[in-house]
């Protein structure tokens, strides 16, 4: 069941409860890939989901609520990490997402050597490339939505994704179509 933004907008607590559970899981999976402090991620999720309920009447004006709340979550998490870094609560913390290679291990039956090769290849990508792959293949966002979340143009998102995929193809030595298959299997 998808999120009923209209239901939330009119104050349907069941719709909000469903959205809360669904968004909490999605934001948590995304947030712990950006920062290692799960308690911090949970705090920011609570903040964003409370904002959703408090500002529910304005949902109609938002063209893409999924993408909008991802952007809010990412920005809030970034601000919180920056604030904590200033107070030295997180030693040397900065908002530079690094997705661990083990998170991206292929879950389907494939040969172990290919799994290791793909994981190693993903690990060589920049944090930004890894984040774009995560948003595109795990969360299923379109290029436009990914661009919005990352705060870059759609054209830059296409370039970022193309470079990432070509790098993976060259490092894993399999056709690009197979890389797509492996990534989809890897992130679902």
UniProtKB/TrEMBL annotation:
<dbReference type="InterPro" id="IPR013324">
    <property type="entry name" value="RNA_pol_sigma_r3/r4-like"/>
</dbReference>
<protein>
    <submittedName>
        <fullName>RNA polymerase sigma factor</fullName>
    </submittedName>
</protein>
<feature type="domain" description="RNA polymerase sigma factor 70 region 4 type 2">
    <location>
        <begin position="116"/>
        <end position="167"/>
    </location>
</feature>
<dbReference type="InterPro" id="IPR013249">
    <property type="entry name" value="RNA_pol_sigma70_r4_t2"/>
</dbReference>
<dbReference type="InterPro" id="IPR036388">
    <property type="entry name" value="WH-like_DNA-bd_sf"/>
</dbReference>
<feature type="domain" description="RNA polymerase sigma-70 region 2">
    <location>
        <begin position="20"/>
        <end position="81"/>
    </location>
</feature>
<keyword id="KW-0804">Transcription</keyword>
<dbReference type="Pfam" id="PF08281">
    <property type="entry name" value="Sigma70_r4_2"/>
</dbReference>
<dbReference type="InterPro" id="IPR007627">
    <property type="entry name" value="RNA_pol_sigma70_r2"/>
</dbReference>
<dbReference type="InterPro" id="IPR039425">
    <property type="entry name" value="RNA_pol_sigma-70-like"/>
</dbReference>
<keyword id="KW-0731">Sigma factor</keyword>
<dbReference type="Pfam" id="PF04542">
    <property type="entry name" value="Sigma70_r2"/>
</dbReference>
<keyword id="KW-0805">Transcription regulation</keyword>
<comment type="similarity">
    <text>Belongs to the sigma-70 factor family. ECF subfamily.</text>
</comment>
<dbReference type="InterPro" id="IPR014284">
    <property type="entry name" value="RNA_pol_sigma-70_dom"/>
</dbReference>
<dbReference type="InterPro" id="IPR013325">
    <property type="entry name" value="RNA_pol_sigma_r2"/>
</dbReference>
